[in-house]
Design goal:
alpha+beta, 8-stranded antiparallel sheet, 5-stranded antiparallel sheet
């Protein structure tokens, strides 16, 4: 937990520093029974309940003035089933600990996001994802879930058991109950070869369909005010293992990607006019490199420069148009954007409120340094995304409400009906859920 989400004099803040809340009380249950008891007591006292992970969401999805549940004692692996190739973990387990524990067991998740500070339940409940041609979000790899519902009872679900709950609860937004354990599909650990190389923006857009089709995991970063991108292609490899050397890794991942980048952010804040020049330099600072390692060492990287982020999923077929429009908006706006725009993909899945629910998707993420005014840029970007029936990431800044979301999610009513059944008195309600799911 520690530095990611801090509580000072009773105030909880998220990682990005843009959300604060003052809960009436905090609880850290050490067992499912203790959690169920805390939920029943909250209901008796007329208090709402919210679980919070590492605070990596930029929305107020975890904020409450009621009871804040911290899951740091609900951590660790419960069991590994090598026949079924699944692992069951406690909800508060950080992804970092899960990845390392699985690697020691010779196992791995198939796909993951690019940071691993979050708890497994926080990451999956908000739809955290990486990039993949065939493999979806972290939640799409869930095989079973255990959650404590509003009446304090423990509900287990899977494709076979309570399937209608399973369809929704894998990305449940904290609206259906508090997740206490997750069973993930795993596979024998494998090697990924990463190819990172600069590529002109126009070429990436012209060849996007081929780049997507030819690689298991394709993503790129475009640097606003430039015609430059940095592309990353991850594909399975027979080996040999060729990790990035420690010195080179420190230089590229820490010094350039975090250290120099932080200085660039400070400079950009002090002298906004310098941002386009800085962007041109930083977009060419990272040279091409190829390395081969186990999945979590390839998929994830440290993110030490704090930021605020908006991300939308658009239909994959619309991504090139949306990016061209975004570039035109930035170029014509006088905005000075010092953070790259990140583009990833996911295949359609069958989770009710997944950003990839029922459609092949591409993700476009815009960022601003923590503490800088992001509204004008995000508003302009959001206009572009919503024109393409974009679905906002549940844990990132957006201004959408239930009326809009019901239009872009065909199964929206299915989720709200299930919520009416599992939480009729809205014990897990907060302002954010009131906005995105309706009263």
């Amino acid at each position: 937990m520690g530095s990611t989400a801090s509580a000072k004099n009773g105030t909880w803040r998220n990682w990005g520093g843009n959300v604060a809340a003052r809960p009436a009380r905090e609880v850290s249950p050490a067992s499912v029974e203790e959690l169920a008891g805390a939920i029943r007591r909250a209901a008796e006292d007329g208090l709402k309940v919210k679980a919070v992970g590492s605070g990596h969401s930029f929305t107020s999805i975890a904020a409450t003035d009621g009871v804040l549940v911290r899951p740091q004692l609900l951590t660790g692996i419960r069991s590994i089933d090598r026949e079924a190739m699944t692992v069951t973990v406690e909800a508060g387990t950080p992804l970092k600990r899960l990845n390392m524990a699985l690697a020691r067991e010779g196992l791995s998740l198939t796909n993951m996001g690019d940071i691993m500070e979050q708890t497994v339940s926080g990451a999956t409940s908000t739809g955290t994802h990486g990039t993949g041609r065939e493999s979806g979000s972290i939640a799409a790899q869930i095989k079973g879930l255990e959650l404590v519902t509003a009446d304090g009872s423990v509900l287990s679900c899977s494709a076979e058991e309570n399937p209608e709950v399973f369809a929704a609860a894998r990305i449940g937004l904290g609206a259906l109950g508090i997740v206490t354990a997750i069973t993930f599909a795993v596979e024998p650990v494998f090697l990924l070869q990463a190819r990172e190389e600069p590529m002109p923006f126009d070429r990436v857009l012209a060849e996007f369909d081929e780049l997507w089709a030819e690689n298991e995991h394709f993503e790129f970063y475009w640097f606003p005010h430039t015609g430059n991108t940095n592309t990353k292609r991850n594909n399975r490899s027979a080996g040999p293992e060729q990790p990035v050397s420690r010195l080179k890794g420190w230089f590229e991942d820490e010094f350039l990607s975090n250290g120099v980048f932080q200085v660039a952010q400070w400079t950009g804040r002090a002298v906004p006019a310098a941002i386009p020049a800085i962007a041109r330099i930083s977009s060419t600072a990272l040279s091409a490199r190829t390395y081969t390692d186990i999945p979590y060492k390839v998929f994830t990287s440290p993110r030490r420069v704090r930021f605020v982020e908006m991300e939308y999923a658009v239909p994959r077929a619309a991504v090139v148009d949306a990016l061209r429009e975004l570039k035109a908006v930035v170029d014509g706006s006088g905005l000075r954007i010092s953070f790259p725009v990140e583009v990833r993909t996911a295949p359609a899945d069958d989770i009710t409120l997944s950003t990839a629910s029922g459609r092949d998707s591409a993700y476009i993420a815009v960022h601003m340094a923590k503490g800088t005014p992001y509204q004008r840029y995000f508003t302009a970007a959001e206009r572009v995304f919503t024109a393409h029936e974009g679905r906002p990431h549940w844990g990132k800044v957006h201004t959408r409400d239930a009326e809009y979301l019901a239009k872009v999610y065909p199964r929206f009513g299915e989720f709200t009906a299930l919520r009416d059944r599992l939480d009729p008195d809205r014990l897990f309600q907060n302002d954010y859920l009131r906005r995105v799911l309706g009263a």
